[in-house]
Specification:
single chain, mainly alpha, 0% strand, binds heme C
């Protein structure tokens, strides 16, 4: 089995065990933990080199079930229905799962009044995001220095402005 197939296979086992409530060695609730089953580990091949289809399988089979557990452990009620859409936004299919999703909460740059406002409005969430979610996402992708900006926009979407000249893509590294 390739690494991707393994991940999908484990994902399917998880789905089946979640529905069937079959015999399970982990947990008394009869549910296998995705974190225990797969671990918060990087993909077998470098994330940047994976095809979009493989990325999608990896999201479905591993990232989503593990993140669901992390979010539910933080607030079971609020994140009972946690799914792709919580990270990718309602428009996820239209924008081909590009991240950060423009509809996500905007995390203002550090040192700005907006950032201080966020810290005082959402102290608990920011702590959870900084200490749990951001490092876990970095590990799951095998990407170093993953930041809030990997999931949250850092400024409001700019209106498309006809006056802004289009820049030619640079071809220096061809
Ligand atoms: C916890 C947040 C989170 C959840 C939940 C999540 N994703 Fe993702 N996903 C990301 C991030 C972050 C990236 C971009 C990683 C990068 O390349 O920097 C991504 C990338 C992708 C990509 C690749 C897009 C591209 O063109 O490179 C696809 C496809 C995708 N996700 C599909 C899904 C699907 C389907 C689900 C639900 C089963 C899902 N994701 C759940 C965070 C999430
Ligand atoms: C892997 C993706 C991911 C990363 C990285 C991430 N977040 Fe989040 N964040 C989310 C998701 C998903 C939610 C919940 C959105 C929802 O409720 O649907 C959220 C919610 C929030 C909220 C609450 C917004 C609201 O309206 O309730 C704040 C504040 C926040 N994040 C700040 C941060 C900060 C600061 C960082 C970096 C330290 C960060 N996030 C990193 C995915 C991420």
């Amino acid at each position: 089995m390739t690494g991707i197939m393994k991940v999908v296979a484990v994902g399917l086992v998880l789905l089946l065990s979640a529905c069937g409530g079959s015999k399970s060695t982990t947990g008394s609730a009869g549910k296998m933990s995705a974190i225990e089953a797969m671990g918060i580990t990087p993909p077998d091949s470098p994330w940047e080199e994976m095809s979009v289809a493989d990325k999608e399988f990896y999201m479905i089979g591993k990232v989503n079930p593990i993140m669901k557990e992390l979010f539910a452990a933080h607030d079971a009620e609020e994140f009972a229905e946690f799914d792709c859409v919580d990270c990718h936004g309602e428009e996820m299919r239209e924008i081909d799962f590009k991240m950060p999703a423009p509809s996500m909460y905007i995390v203002p740059p550090e040192g700005t009044p907006g950032h201080r406002g966020m810290m005082s409005t959402f102290p608990e969430t920011v702590k959870f995001m900084a200490e749990t979610i951001t490092p876990a996402m970095g590990k799951l992708l095998g990407v170093e220095n993953f930041t809030c900006a990997g999931c949250h926009p850092s400024e409001a979407r700019k209106k498309k402005n006809a006056a802004t000249p289009k820049r030619k893509p640079s071809k220096t590294n061809g």
